[in-house]
Amino acid sequence: MTPLRFCLLTTFYPPFNFGGDGVDVQRTARALVRRGHEVTVVHDVDAYEWLSGRKLTAPADDDGVEVLPLRSKLGVISPLLTHQFGRPVVHGRTISNLIDRRNFDVVMFNNVSLVGGPGLLSYGGNALKVYVAHEHWLVCPTHVLWRDNAEPCTKRRCVRCVGNYRRPPQLWRYTGGLERRLSQVDLFIARSEFSRQKHYDYGFSQPMRVLPYFLPGELPAQPPARTTARPHERPYLLFVGRLTRMKGVDSLMPVFRRLPDVDLLIVGDGEEQEALRALAADLPNVHFVGRVPNEELGRYYEHALAAIVPSLGYETFGIVLIEAFRHGTPVIARRLGPFPEIVEQSGGGLLFGNDDELIAAIARLRNGPGLRERMIANAYAACRERWSEEVVIGRLLNYVSDALEIRAVGMRLSNAGMAPAT
Predict the structure, then answer these.
(1) What are phi and psi of 236, to 5 degrees?
(2) What is the tens place of the pLDDT at every residue in 200-252?
(3) CA 65 – CA 14 distance, rounded (Å)
């Protein structure tokens, strides 16, 4: 493929990020650069500082990606205005001038909720426009289909739900503006079959392609040998993620009360951290590790009996699962959302729906002769076949190439006075 000029627009980008969406944008940017493409990333620092309460300094990266952080003297007011008006009130001209000046071939919209909202979707000029649905923002004001901040959403009652999150309503969601701007996007991408179907269930009407998250770099032919020192002496299950109600960590406490001979290591932080510490105050086998840099997470995965994924709400993918697979670790995941899809595709883990099933799954991994080793081999093979950088970025570039060709054909037909076939 001829080298292309990409612009990736996103609210969050490492180190100014919370979870998998920012990490994936960074991995995608670097992978495209490795394949000879030019990549510019635009992200909003004020949004991160508003939501995190932290001020960070980005390290100097020599990865070939041009990173343009947006900052405003207005601070938190800038993303708040975007949230309320559904357009980049403060940074709109800066973004527009950049796109017009650089003449990008492809503009990719990632998590745009606070960097520009739906108004950003009209930016891009003649570039191919690609929307990547890292969350369910297109169909949900809270992004995550987690109703009333308490349970998975099964029926729309958005005004009441947003009120329970104590967020101001986004009136632009009721004007039809989002739907009108969606028609300007050439390609929509969901991160799993489950997430694509959820978009359709909640009224999204545009065609979507599925492109999963991926593991960066080259994956050797065999799972890696354990070469790091154990981070914890006793046998342990590993949780990695933000400590929010939706992640379901609180549901693990009664289980580990019944499993005194196996530990739970919790890596991450978030607004539920203190409440979880209180729940686990009398559980000596539950340990809070805190935030761990990505480059140090490997040793926690490598020595875990399994990675545990207890989310109570609908994820769009489940990056923790494939990260565990990469490090030779099986998973035990709740039978919900995209997790059954990933476990069934990989053969790399077990599913549970209640406490007894979770305890039985842990027992199977600890006591089943050869079961864990078979799962590790299956999962790693699936990583190479389904979730490697080579496979996923190759598919992305094929999708882009196909969309560019379709648009070129449409333009030729239009110039000839013929309507394209539908």
Answers:
(1) -145, 155
(2) 999 999 999 999 999 999 999 888 777 889 999 999 999 999 999 999 999 99
(3) 12
Domain containing residue 179: 5-216+389-415
- CA 75 vs. chain centroid, Å, equals 25
Same domain for 112 and 93:
yes
- Looking at the fold, whether 156 and 179 belong to one and the same domain comes out as yes
Q: Give the end-to-end CA distance of the chain in Å, rounded to a whole number.
A: 27
CA dist 119 → 74, 260, 370 (Å): 20, 53, 54
The amino acid at residue 100 is D
Q: Are residues 189 and 109 in the same domain?
A: yes
Judge contact between 90 and 120, C-beta under 8 A.
no
- Locate 232 and state its tokens: 């914890």
* Residue 228 belongs to some domain of the structure: no
Least confident of 36-45, 158-167, 189-198, 320-329: 158-167
Q: 226 lies in a domain?
A: no
pTM: 0.93
Contact (CB, 8 A) for 368 and 345: no
Contacts of 6 (CB under 8 A, 6+ apart): 29, 32, 37, 38, 39, 40, 104, 105, 106, 107, 108
